[in-house]
Amino acid sequence: MPALRVLAVQMVVDSTGFHVDIPSGSDSTIVFAFWAGVAVAAMTFITLAVIIIMRQVMLRRERIHARAVAFWKAIIIATPADGVGKIPPLRNRDMTGFLEVWNEVHEPLRGSTTPHLARVACEVGLEERLYNRLSDGRFHTRLVAIIAMGHVQNAASFGRIEKFMDDPNPIVSLCVARALMQIDPGQAISMFVPRIARRSDWSPGSIATILNEAGADRVTRELSEATLQANVDMAPRLIRFLASVSPESAAPIIRNILLTSLDGRLISTCLQVMSNPEDLACVRPLLVHPRWHVRMQAAVTLGRLGVPGDEQFLVSILSDKQWWVRYRAAQALMKLGFVNTDGMHRILKSQTDEYARDIIKHVLAEEAMIKHVVAAEATAAA
Amino acid sequence: MTYVTAMIAFLQGVPWIDLILSLQWLFLGYFICINTAYLTLNYISVFSIVGYMRDHRADYLPTNLASYQPPVSILIPAYNEEGSIVSSVHSLLGLEYPEFEIVVINDGSTDNTLGEVIAAFGMVEFPEAYRRRIETMPVKKIYASSRYPRVRLIDKDNGGKADTLNAGINCARYPLFCSIDADCILQPDSLGRVVRPFLEDPTMVAVGGVVRVLNGCAVRNGLLEKVELPQNYLARFQLVEYLRAFLFGRLGWSPLNALLIISGAFGVFKKERVIAIGGYRSKTVGEDMDLVVRLHRNLRQEKRPYRISFVPDPICWTEVPTDLKSLKAQRMRWQRGLAESLAPNVGALFDRRGGAVSWLALPFMFTFELLGPVIEVLGYAIIIPLWLLGLIPLQSFLVFLFLSIGLGVLLSTNALFLEELSFQMYPRLGQQVKLFGIAILENFGYRQITSVWRFKAVLYWLFSFSKKSRWGEIARDGSWQRYSGPPEADAPGRPDVPTVP
Lengths: 382, 501
Fold this sequence. Notes:
The complex is a heterodimer. By secondary structure, chain A is mostly helical. Chain A has helices at 28-76, 95-106, 115-124, 126-134, 139-152, 155-161, 170-183, 185-198, 204-214, 216-229, 235-245, 247-260, 264-273, 280-283, 292-305, 310-316, 323-335, 341-350, 354-381, and strands spanning 3-6, 9-14, 17-21. In chain A, 69% of the residues lie in helices and 4% in strands. Chain A has a three-stranded antiparallel beta sheet with strand order 1-2-3, with no helix packed on it. The termini of chain A are far apart. By secondary structure, chain B is of the alpha/beta class. Chain B has a single domain (7-54, 69-487), classed as Spore Coat Polysaccharide Biosynthesis Protein SpsA, Chain A (Alpha-Beta Complex). In chain B, β4 and β5 (151-156) form a beta hairpin. Chain B starts with a helix and ends in a 38-residue tail after the last helix.
């Protein structure tokens, strides 16, 4: 009777035919290991099958989605001149593709709409469908619907989505904040600004975009008040946003901080965003501030906004013990319109400090390099 | 035959044979623990990747304003990289990121690396006021590009990779630095993606990204054009290994804030934090892991809130060795680096305030990553002779071999599953089937040989302690570069316009 052992399975061919013996009996460890191996092999093949099925399902979904996008794009971006007749019914499976096109078309419109888009929204019953999708558990479906609500700007949507502004997921909460600011900026700003201070997980770039989209006149008052009331941890974040939306409104607050605050980080932030040359008198004393990053930012600010006479303040810190202060001071001197390369060479000759001389040489070489690149590009363009 | 039978009979009579036989239970217990640990990491990764893909599958919010994206210094340490350095820098010049600089650091190469960079980018000597914030070997010259204002070159005396990175940190101008290997290329959006966690969490100090296998892919003008599987089987085995290492090895630890490895090939760090702990340690060959472990310890000692994270979508492509000699050298260097990074941190094990790093990640690394190959090789060395001598029944031997290989294949298949859940870089059915085939094949020879090399590395480390950071020399296939050429000067999206650094 021929018998063959493969793994632990004994395959036997005898007079009764072929049969397979699996491990069994006294050694329970072997039996357990064998069945564990079988389970693992089964899991492996199931995983492989899942991978292949997922891929096929995804390919099919992508095909449907691409078809929906192409179909609805043609209708949504059509103009009356294209003679769009009856708007076809929107099938549920096309809804995500439709909304993606809808959002894409609205993005550059910045809150406005067209009669054609309004007609499309009306005929497909967009609002009711959007409300239905809010209760959908799928992340993408919900978010696309929230973004679309922001574009539709129906006041009735405000109450339906405001509760999601405190969603722990920063993407959901920021999308809701943006939609609310699009629907009713007056009401939304009082909810949005306090949360800017609280939500450190909100990306600064996205916050700035939302504030800029709403416009300075709508956000300045709330933002100024919040900045004035903020503690030293939150104030740098808020002052940056305020200065980016409304430099004029930020100027008095910045002046006040530069004159009174003792917090180095807050002063540094104010120096980075200040844009009013009239406040330079508050900046010059900061060139001898005990914190090096304040001295560095003060030098940068003088380079940006300085007036004749400021070069002597900058020269005085060319031998600062911090490399970055020396470097930014030398760069600032170069940026002052009235100190040209010759002026820098004169300053270089007058310096006795080795570090000051090194840093001036460094910045002069950098400047020469930049001029060379610009000239080469201009020649190439010509 | 009589002698063999007699010897078996003799061995079976030896009293301590029972002790040796009982070792099989030790191996079995270890085997159960290691696979349970890997499977647990695997399932944590599934949740992480599903959450990550959910949040980032589309750009739901308007693009970040450029002024809010922190500028980044990209550091490329280079030692004898004349074949790949120019392509890498060209690839980096194509990054879609508002403000960055590229600092190539030539560590006293003995080939023409320096000349290649000088010629390709029009480098001219620059009187930089160099600050030595971290001690390094002497810097000979600093160059700046006369054509690409973003590019600088440091030429220094040879001191190893860690020393080279430290020189780069000294020269870096920006608050974040990104270390990249000279044989790597990034996708245009990779830098933006790896920096994103710094914008979303102010306590972030370091972020690592995925490294994938470049062999077999096509690169044109420094940009990845086509993703394909490598032709070389050794590279294919490594492809599956990289998927395992990055998609669940790292992603599994990230949610626990216990990530101990950010690959030297692609990671972004807050510069001041790294300088505060003295930069990279040059007395190790595993400087990347050593840095991350020290960051964890230092930040926990200072009781600062922090995060060290891993994100799966910023992708860095690297060329892997295609010959056994280079692969052996690389794996032995990695294992030695692991040992050197872990040894000084024995004190952090089970530290009361050490959190998941002390209670999970470090014990895992010690027990499974450092000792894993030792136990595995000892397992082969003991179990196989015992079976040959008839002291372990054939049935037991084969059953455990079946289970061991089955678990190896399952782990690799799970990595393929994670890949399917995320980026689908290899979408064709044929590619998936081939990868599955590789996941099976690697268990027959490849896995064992890499374990033997790692085992040897542990022994070498044990018996020769003081070795300083050296460069791993790998024979490059370089086939991916056959399409490479200089970027078109006016290609859209190339940020080659002059900017004030």
